Structures are given as C-alpha cells and as structure tokens.
Amino acid sequence: MQASVTSWFGLVPEQNRGNLVNKRMSAADVVSELRSGMTIGIGGWGARRKPMALVRELVRSDVTDLTIVAYGGPDVGMLCAAGKVRKLIFGFVSLDVIPLEAHFRKARQAGQIEVMELDEGMLQWGLRAACYRLPFLPIRAGLATDIQTLNTELRTVQSPYADGETLLAMPALNLDAALVHVDQADERGNGQVLGPDPYFDDLYCGAAKRRYVSCERIVDTAAMTDSGCVHTLLLDRGLVDGVVEAPFGAHPTSCSPNYGIDAEHLRTYSASAKEETGWADYRAKFVDVDDASYVNAVGGAEKVSSIPHTIF
Amino acid sequence: MANVDYTLADLCITAAAEAWRGDGEILASGIGIVPRLAAGLAWRTHSPDLMMTDSESVLVSEPVPVGPRDGYEPKVEGWMPFRRVFDILWSGRRHAMTSPTQLDRRGNINISFIGDPKRPKVQLLGARGIPGNTINHACSFFVPSHTQRTFVERVDMASGVGFDDSRWDKGTRRDWMDLRLVVSNLAVMDFKGPNNRLRILSTHPGVSVQQVQEQTAFDLCVAENVGETPTPSAEQTAILNELDPHGQRAATVKA
Hints:
- In chain A, strands 1, 2, 3, 4, 5, 9, 10, 11 and 12 form a nine-stranded mixed sheet that branches.
- By secondary structure, chain A is of the alpha/beta class.
- Chain A folds into two domains: 24-134 and 173-305, Glutaconate Coenzyme A-transferase (3-Layer(aba) Sandwich); 137-171, no CATH class.
- In chain A, α4 (74-81) links the parallel β3 (66-72) and β4.
- Chain A is 31% helix and 22% strand.
- The longest helix of chain A is centred in the middle third of the chain and has 12 residues, at 120-131.
- Helix content of chain B is 22%, strand content 24%.
- Chain B is built from six helices and 15 strands.
- Chain B has helices at residues 8-17, 33-45, 82-90, 130-136, 209-214, 234-243, and strands spanning 27-30, 52-53, 58-60, 76-79, 94-98, 102-104, 109-110, 113-115, 120-123, 138-143, 151-152, 178-184, 187-190, 199-203, 221-228.
- By secondary structure, chain B is α/β, with parallel strands linked by helices.
- The radius of gyration of chain B is 18 Å and the shape is globular.
- In chain B, β6 and β7 (109-110) form a beta hairpin.
- In chain B, the strands form four sheets. In chain B, strands 1-5-10-12-13-14-15 form a seven-stranded mixed sheet, sandwiched between helices. Chain B has a three-stranded antiparallel sheet with strand order 2-3-4, with no helix packed on it. A three-stranded mixed sheet of chain B has the order 7-6-11, with no helix packed on it.
- Classes of the chains: A alpha/beta, B alpha/beta.
- At the A-B interface, β4, α5, α6 and α7 of A face α3, β9 and α4 of B.
C-alpha cells in the first residue's frame, strides 16, 4: 500500500496545521534544565561562535561538577574560573588571538580539573559516534602518542578484515546537553549559520539528549532562505529542543558575519587571571549582569557590531 | 653576485620552504608566521601545485600575505572549514609545518604541557591536531629557539608520534608517518640518520656543528656532506617582502 505525502498530511486536522511547536526559551530557562554532574558539549571553536550568553547564565547558576566537551575558548576558561568543571574533554583551549587561555591554564596548573586530552579529530569522531548511536568509531589519530597512554580508558580494536590493522576505538562522547550559538533560527528550532565555517555544532546537537541553540535573531522560517543558500541551514529542528534569542550572544568570541573576535575584551579577560581578585572583578562587571547591561559594559551594540573580523 | 640583505628569519623561511618541494597537489599548512611564509615561498618558487588556505576556512589560488590586508582580497578557490581539514588530513593529502615546544630524539613532539600530567607546571595548548597529523601525513617542524629546553632527551608529553618502537602496537600502520624536515634558528635537520636519528644537514652561516650539538640535549648525527644553509637570493627576499608586506617575520626568530 502506498500513501502519498498529501494524503498523510490530509490526516492532520486542518485547524492544527498552523499549530507548530514553539521552542523559544530564555537563557535562564535553558540553565534551569541543566543539573550538576551533567556532561555538556559546547559548540564553536576556540574564540569563534561560542554560546557565551548561555555560558554566562551557566556561570551564574548553582549547577556544578560538570564534564565539559569542547574545542575550548573563553567558555572553558570562564567555567573553570567559576569552579564549575570537574572534568574537561578537549583537543585544545585557546583564545586564538591569545594562544593560551589563562583561566584554563590556572585551573590546570593548580590541579583543579580532571582532563581527557584528545586529538581534535578524535573529539569530532567521538561526537559522531554518539550521533550515530555507535559505541565507538575507529581512528588512527592518538595511537603511539601519550593521548593513548594518559587516557587509560581508551581501547584499540583490530580490523576483522584481511589487513588486521590495529586502530584506536574512539568511544562515543554522549552528551546530556549541547549548547551552541548560530546566526539565525526560527521558533521551531531550524538553525542557520551564515559564516564560512559550521564548526561541529550539528555534531554536538546530534550527540546530546537536550539541545539548546542561542542565536543572534529569531526569524520567520522563510526569512532564512532569503539570508543564505540552503547549505547554511545547518541544524534541522529535530536536533533542537530550545531556541534562545541572544543578540551578541557569542561575544567576546566572533559570530561571522555579524562581528569579529573582541581581542581587546579578551585581553582584559585574560589579564584578570593574573590578579588575586581578577576573576571576581571580571565576573561582577561582565557576568553577574543582565544581557542589556552586558552589551553596554562591553561598549554597546554599535561598537560590538563593528568589531572587525580577525585576519589570521 | 651582489650581496643580498636578509634576516635570520628570511634564511629559516627559505630553508623551510624546501620541505614542500615536489609535494604536488596537497594541502600545505604552515602554522605560524615562519612556516606560513615558507609554504607561500614554496608555492611562489618551486611548487605552484600546492594548495593553501586563508588560515581560516577557504582554499586560495595564491598565498595570502600575512598581516593587515590593505585591500588585498584572498583569491578563493574552494571551501575548507575545519571539518574538511580532517577529511583531507586523514586521506594523507597534507603536509603541515608546526612549531613544537619540545622535540626529542625519537621525533616525538610536545605542545600539550610541561611537567606532571595531573598538575602541569606549564599548561600549553593541548594536543590540537598533532596526533592525527603525525600518524597520517608529512610533518615538518620549525623551532625558533634551538636550546636544550626545546630539543630534549624525552618530551614531557608525546603529542605526536615518533620512532620510539615501544609506543607502537605491531598491528598499527606506521608507513604513513613521515617526519620530514626540522628547521631551527641554528640548523636544518632531518630524521635520516642511522636508526632515524636526527641528523644535521646544514648549519646556518656563522654556526658550527658543535654549537648545534651543545644546544641539543641528545646526540645528533651529521650528514656526510654537511654544509652551510643556503642564503636567500634576491628573488626569494623580494617574494618574502610581498608575502609579508608589514615585516612581521623579522621578530619571530632569535639570532
């Protein structure tokens, strides 16, 4: 028996067809769904398109004892400085314009956090395994290095075919929650990245039980294809549970094409790691404030909008 | 022949450009100013088939000058976001040059941390892509400060693979590991000494083999025809001035 799409659609009562799920939330709503002890993946890359408005909300909460999975930037540094991190699963932590992340280094050098240091490719491979509901994916990266010896939980697997090759079995990185930031989304959770690199945000969402997307703007669905070609529609709504409108929500990281990395702000943030009350002062000024006050504190909407894109 | 004005950085870049000679249509990734200019110089002089990126997310048809662009628009020819870098590097079609914090006698490099893994004395970047790079494709290294702290007996963490047999399972493929050239502020080296020992190919003008050995914490071997690193030609320095119009390279290497 074959049913056409139109006939199935016809089964939905006409009055319900416009009744689409609205996933709009506030950052506080998102964090109210997070619990201490969770494993949380954070999208973006270094100082690029990090969901910083959500991260700041997380810093303000009493959620703690987290395992964080990330290509780390100031998201990781701030969560370390706030004492939220029990364990970090990472390939690097960097502010890009400042190679080393001062708050992360401080936590590591004090022995405050447990780590699972991975090759960058292993990290995405672990997320991909989780996306596909696989226990692991085979990979060569990490073999014959201290990635293998320091992470004693890692196992190898032998190819069952004639080659018999020994490969590293990268375990799935199953996440309780994913936090990502995109340019535009609709209220149903379709997410659009207008910049040149999607990073691995779709994998973080695919690997997580609960998926939260902040965005510069919530727009009508039709407006998304007006803004960019279909290749820019990175997240389908089945990958998203909550949408948060957070203008400048990636600041001080970049959100290309909207604004670049705020190198000046990152220098202030980085320098705060050196002083006794540095993090407390930074936090009082830039974290323990509402979103509107934050934008004002970092120079105002016009200034952030005009931050040039870093030339690497 | 007229004397050519050049800096030590120019000399290192010219020597490092040789790493990519004959590599063909593969991605040449030079991470940091000297490696990046070296890849650009290789492209401009002997290896125009090399592929390069804008150091962000697109492939370009010619090397992008370093620093402020002053109206220069990168000549985009392809898309290379980070996810596609993994595609290309796992297929082996890449030769990267990076700057390790430590490099040891076995060719293992470290960019992760110094000291105790649980509580490092100095936390560095983390392994980044080094484990995958070194086991999958050609890798060369540029070390701007050649001392016993950078050329060490044993790295504090092996971020990359090397020739240490004890680290390799017998079923693991080693044949794609390809540690090529090591350029420092003192010498040009490779791993083609007996038992893959690090071997001096040439020393930079004014530097002796003995000085290089004294600045290295393990025994080096010396190529039979060891000589002086060739100095840059007028053509090479002219190209470097185009690729580095703001002169950022000079400060990158210790004299």
